[in-house]
Structure formats: structure tokens, C-alpha cells
Write a structure and sequence with these properties.
The protein is mainly alpha-helical. The protein is built from 19 helices and no strands. Among the domains are: 123 residues, Intraflagellar transport protein 81, N-terminal domain (Actin-binding Protein, T-fimbrin, domain 1, Orthogonal Bundle); 105 residues; 31 residues. Helix 1 crosses helix 6 and helix 3 packs parallel to helix 6. The longest helix has 132 residues. Its main location: cytoplasm.
Length: 676
């Protein structure tokens, strides 16, 4: 914090501020002075903010500063991350809020000046969607966006030119070089003119050369126009192909559709849209409003600690438990077990939830279908551009795929039948071979028996007769059954035709009446729809105007409320100061010495006298210390020398003792050797 304040003071003492502050004077600034200082710094960045804050309301000052700080992309530090606390600190001129803002602004003044300049032209004005439906407003908005883009490009070019580093000296040198080249070219032109003047018909040749140059320029312009027209023709062909594809799709849709299916589709769409308008969207709007209300309530509250969160969670759990108990008690008390209302309610709630889920799924499917249709159109246009051949529509492609699938299934089925028939054919062929062998053996036995009995050929004749009679009886039976079936079928068909005619006669009459009613209802529906659209547009316009008016009144109310609170706070502080001043005057003027002693002036006077006496005593003590400083230093030096001397003597004494002990040990060792 000290380094931050030092940096702020140094920057404020320099150009262009020249405030002549020090750390003490800067720290002792009043909140109003701090706000004025912040406004001056912001005015240096953006001249529109160089205003006297005493001439505007505190709420306007805070709003103006917050808007500019938002444009400059200032992020509050961690200590004031709450936006409401930061806003309150700006209104009251809190040091903890304004000092970091000043430090951030003074660190990057030139960069922020450029950003504020660009924000005047690049902050986009948000135009409501209902206004953009007007063609004039939409054209102006488009021109505004184009001008903004042009300004961006020009600013980039300007910055690049500044970075390129072309100085005025280099430009002057280039200009002088160009002038020299111009003079040389003029001289060459004069020389060429003199040469040409000697040639015969030079004027005619010059005229022909001029015409040749003009024709070449015209040829280049015509070639450019030809290229542009080719590109326009190509784009027009693409648009024509897309329009043809859309026309074919619409014709296909119209050809496949019937009035009944169209009416049914329109009824379904109307039912779905009415459900969205009357049930789903109002419920979602209500839930959004409640969530916004709770979020605003949470934002307005002060920052919460972890302990507050745990307390709220515990309170929430308790409330949920109480709510569950009350629900159980109510179900036991008011809903007996044999009642069917609970079952019906559950079924109704389940059906409503399913209805909402299906509506959401249907809406999502419609959005997905629209996106897929757009992708299909893009792909078809790309295919037209690449190949130029006709692309199948969605319905044609579906029909083609369904035909392929049906043919594939039919092919697989027939292939299985062929395999079964082939296997059965092999079995039957083997059976036939076995039976033929057996029949031949039996025939041989029969012929041998007939030859023995003398009646050869009898069995063959008998078989032929039986076979002919069987065929004749089968043919007679089939003829009789066919005639009976045909007569019965004719009778049934005649009866069914008569019955259908009789039953369809009133239906046809009713259908004609219903068709006429359908046409009338369709016309009435179109008229009502037009009335609804016009009424809805008028109501929407009135609603937007009322919303703007309510918004302005709410802002005015909030501003007046903040002014009222600020004036009340100032009034209370002034009343307290006035009361303290009255009490001070009363105590100071009072003849009683006891009351005078309570006065602040007397208290400060006593404190000043005590401090002056203390200062005198300290100065006398300092004088004594200064006078005795020299002798005391000498005495201290002597004591230090004496201490060193005693230390040296002690070390010498210890060395003598060590040497005496070593000599004694040596003598004792010599005596021991002599004894040995």
C-alpha cells in the first residue's frame, strides 16, 4: 500500500496534474476531494469527464465513472470484487476503492487515452429488434456498422503508419528526389518535342498516338466490364438453379398434399402454437422472472462467508424436512386411501410433464429440421455448382431409398425361397429316383405275374381308365364350384355397391357443406389472424413504450432515493458537528472551572503544556547526555582495554598451568623408568 501511494503521489506531482502532494497530504484528503481527483484523472483520459463533481449528483458521478471504467475494462481487486460494494465505495469516496483505481489509471494513461478515444466510435449502439424491422432504421444501422468498420481500418492504417517510423526528413528527401525526377522528365519531354517537330505530319502522328492510348484504356475497361458481367451471370445462374429447385420442391409438396391433410397440419400447428403461447412460454417467463428476482435479491445482499452458507444450508434442510412432514400430514388427513383423486392427480401431473417434454422435443426437432433444411439447401447449391446436374429433393430421395429397401428385402426373400426350393428339389429328385426304381421293380413283378396268368397289359389299361375318370370328375367339380362362386360374388358386389351408395349419399352432402364451411372458416381465420397481428404489433409498441417509461421512472426514483439518503447522512453529520460545537462553546464560556476543564480546547491546551514540559525535560536530558558523552566514551574505552588485559593474563596463566602439568608428567615417567 505504501508503494502504491508513493507511485500515485509521484504521478500526480508530474505533468499534467502538478498537484504538489506528499504522502501525508494525499492520505489526509477528504472523500469529496478524492472523488474530484479521480474525476480529474478520468478527464485527462477522456475530456468529456473533466467536470466539477459539485455540480452533479453523487449517483450521476458514480454512474459516469462506472461507465468509463467499464469501457476502459477495469476489474476491481479482490477486496472489492462485489460490484455493489465497489459502487458504494465510489459514491462515498472510500480510500480502499479509489486508491487502486488511481494506481491502475496512472500506470497506463496513454494506453487508456487511446482506448477511450476509440470507445467514442466503436461502442456499438444496441437497437431493439422491433425497430430493425423498419427498412429505414435497418438501412441506417447497416450504414452505421459499415462506417464503424471503415473507421477500424483507417485507425489500423494510421497506427501502422505511425509505427513505420517515416520521419519528416525522409519525406522531404523523397519529395526533393521526386521534384528532380520531374525536372528531368520535363527536360526529356522538351528534347523529344524538338526532335518530333522536325518530322513531317508530327501533329497527326501525335493525334493517332493519343487515340491509340485512349482505345487501349477503353479496351481494358471493356475487358474488366466483361469479367464483371461474367461473374454476375454466373451468380444469376446459381440463383436461378436454387429458385428452380425450390419451385420443384414446392410443386412436389403441393401435388402430394390434400386439403384434408393441409387442414390437419394447420390445426396441429395452431394447437402447438397456442399451447406454447398460453401455457409453456408464460410459465417459463414466470420462472425466469422469479429466478431474476432472487438473483437481484442475492446481488443486493452483502457478501456471505462460509459460515453463513453452512447456516443457510442447514436452515434449508430443516425447512425441507418440515415441508415433507406437512405434506405427509395433509395427505393422511385430507386424502383417504380409498380415494381415487390422488391417482388422478398423479396421472394428470405425469401427463402434463409428458406433454411439456414432448412439446420441448417437438420444438427441438423443428429447430433441428430447419437447420438441416438450410444445410440441405447449401449442399444442393454446392452440388449444382460442382456438377450442374439436377439433385434429388428430400421426398424423392426418401422414395428412392424406400424403393431400394423394398427391392432389397424382396431380393433377399426370393433368394431364400430359391435356396429352399433348390434344397427341396434335390430331395424330391432323390425321392423320385428311389420311387422310380421301386416302381420299375414292381412293374416287372406285375408283368411277370400277368404273363404267368395269361392277362398281360391288364394293369396298364386299368390305370389309364382310372386316371381318365378321375380327371373328368375333377373337371366337373371345378366347373360347378366356379359357377357358384361367380354368382355369389356378383350378388355380393351388387349388394355392397347399393349399400355404399346409400351410406355415402348423406356423407357426400355433409362433405359439401363442410367444404363450404371450411372455406368460410379459412377466410375468417385469415381475417382474424391479420387483426391479431395488427393488434399484437400495437400492443407490443405500447408495451415497449411503457417499459421505457417505467424504466426511466425507476431510475429517477432510485436516483432521488440515493440523493435523499446522501442528504440525510450529510444532515446527520452536520447536526452532530453543530451539537459538538455548541457543547464546546457552552463549556468554554461557562464560568465554572469544572466545566471549562471538560472543554476540548482546555484539554488540548493541557496536553500541549504537558508535551512542552516533557520536551523541555527531554532537551535537558539530551544536553546532559551530550556533555557527559566524551568522558563516558573514554571511560568505556579504558574498561575495554582493562578487560582485554585481564583476558590476556588469564590465558597466560592457563598456559603456565598446562606446561607445569606436562613437566610433572614427564618427571614421573622418568622415575618409573629408573625403577625398572
Amino acid at each position: 500500500i505504501g508503494d502504491q501511494m508513493q507511485f500515485i503521489v509521484e504521478k500526480l506531482n508530474q505533468e499534467p496534474f502538478r498537484k504538489n502532494y506528499n504522502l501525508i497530504s494525499f492520505d489526509s484528503l477528504e472523500p469529496l476531494q478524492l472523488l474530484q481527483l479521480l474525476s480529474d484523472v478520468l478527464g485527462e483520459i477522456d475530456p468529456k469527464h473533466a467536470v466539477d463533481i459539485r455540480e452533479e449528483l453523487p449517483e450521476q458521478t458514480a454512474k459516469r465513472m462506472l461507465n468509463l471504467l467499464g469501457v476502459l475494462k477495469y476489474k476491481p481487486p479482490g477486496t472489492v470484487s462485489d460490484l455493489s460494494a465497489f459502487r458504494q465505495g465510489l459514491v462515498t469516496g472510500s480510500k480502499t476503492v479509489i486508491h487502486p483505481v488511481l494506481h491502475w489509471l496512472l500506470q497506463r494513461t496513454s494506453e487508456l487515452r487511446t482506448r477511450a478515444y476509440l470507445a467514442r466510435f466503436l461502442v456499438k449502439l444496441e437497437v431493439p429488434a422491433e425497430f430493425l424491422q423498419d427498412d429505414t432504421v435497418a438501412d441506417f444501422n447497416k450504414q452505421y456498422e459499415e462506417l464503424m468498420e471503415a473507421f477500424k481500418n483507417l485507425h489500423k492504417e494510421h497506427e501502422q503508419l505511425k509505427i513505420s517510423g517515416l520521419s519528416t526528413a525522409e519525406i522531404r528527401r523523397d519529395i526533393s528526389a521526386m521534384e528532380e525526377e520531374k525536372d528531368q522528365l520535363a527536360k526529356r519531354v522538351e528534347r523529344l518535342k524538338k526532335r518530333v517537330e522536325t518530322v513531317q505530319n508530327h501533329q497527326r502522328m501525335l493525334e493517332i498516338a493519343r487515340q491509340l492510348r485512349l482505345e487501349k484504356e477503353r479496351e481494358e475497361s471493356l475487358a474488366q466490364q466483361k469479367q464483371e458481367q461474367k461473374s454476375q451471370l454466373f451468380h444469376a445462374e446459381q440463383r436461378l438453379q436454387r429458385a428452380q429447385v425450390q419451385l420443384k420442391e414446392m410443386q412436389h409438396v403441393v401435388a402430394d398434399s390434400k386439403p384434408e391433410s393441409l387442414m390437419k397440419k394447420l390445426e396441429e400447428e395452431i394447437n402447438f402454437n397456442s399451447y406454447l403461447v398460453t401455457e409453456k412460454i408464460p410459465r417459463e417467463m414466470e420462472s425466469k422472472k422469479t429466478s431474476v428476482y432472487f438473483l437481484q435479491k442475492v446481488v443486493a445482499e452483502p457478501a456471505m462467508t462460509q459460515a453463513d452458507l453452512t447456516a443457510l444450508e442447514s436452515e434449508r434442510d430443516e425447512v425441507n424436512a418440515q415441508m415433507n412432514q406437512l405434506i405427509e400430514k395433509r395427505m393422511i388427513k385430507y386424502e383417504p386411501t380409498d380415494s381415487k383423486f390422488s391417482m388422478y392427480r398423479q396421472q394428470a401431473s405425469i401427463i402434463s410433464r409428458k406433454k411439456e417434454a414432448k412439446a420441448e422435443e417437438l420444438q427441438a426437432a423443428k429447430e433441428e429440421m430447419s437447420s438441416l433444411e438450410r444445410q440441405m439447401e447449401q449442399k444442393s447449391s454446392q452440388a449444382h455448382e460442382l456438377e450442374g446436374s439436377e439433385v434429388l429433393t428430400e421426398d424423392e430421395f426418401k422414395q428412392y431409398v424406400s424403393k431400394l429397401r423394398s427391392k432389397n428385402t424382396f431380393y433377399k426373400k426370393k433368394r431364400l425361397e430359391i435356396a429352399e426350393i433348390t434344397a427341396e428339389y434335390g430331395i424330391l429328385q432323390r425321392t423320385e429316383e428311389l420311387l422310380r426304381q421301386r416302381h420299375e421293380a414292381i412293374q416287372q413283378q406285375l408283368q411277370a405275374t400277368e404273363e404267368k396268368k395269361g392277362i398281360s397289359g391288364y394293369s396298364y389299361t386299368q390305370e389309364e381308365l382310372e386316371r381318365v375318370s378321375a380327371v373328368k370328375s375333377e373337371m366337373d367339380e371345378v366347373k360347378g364350384q366356379t359357377l357358384d362362386n361367380m354368382s355369389e360374388m356378383v350378388k355380393k358386389l351388387n349388394a355392397m355397391v347399393a349399400e355404399k351408395k346409400a351410406s355415402l349419399a348423406p356423407v357426400i352432402k355433409e362433405l359439401r357443406q363442410l367444404r363450404q364451411n371450411c372455406q368460410e372458416l379459412t377466410q375468417e381465420c385469415d381475417e382474424k389472424k391479420m387483426q391479431y397481428d395488427s393488434c399484437a404489433a400495437g400492443l407490443e409498441t405500447n408495451r415497449s413504450a411503457l417499459e421505457q417509461e417505467v424504466k426511466g421512472l425507476l431510475e429517477e426514483c432510485a436516483q432521488e432515493e440515493s440523493n435523499y439518503r446522501y442528504i440525510n447522512c450529510m444532515k446527520r453529520s452536520l447536526e452532530i458537528q453543530l451539537q459538538r460545537a455548541k457543547e464546546e462553546m457552552k463549556a468554554y464560556v461557562s464560568p465554572e472551572p469544572q466545566e471549562r476543564r471538560r472543554a476540548v480546547r482546555e484539554q488540548y491546551t493541557r496536553i500541549i503544556l504537558e508535551q512542552e514540559n516533557l520536551g523541555k525535560k527531554l532537551r535537558e536530558k539530551q544536553k546532559v547526555v551530550r556533555e557527559s558523552h566524551g568522558p563516558n566514551m573514554k571511560q568505556m574505552k579504558m574498561w575495554q582495554d582493562f578487560q582485554q588485559l585481564m583476558e590476556c593474563k588469564r590465558e597466560c596463566f592457563l598456559k603456565q598451568q598446562n606446561q607445569a602439568a606436562i613437566g610433572q608428567i614427564i618427571q614421573e615417567g622418568g622415575k618409573d623408568r629408573l625403577v625398572l
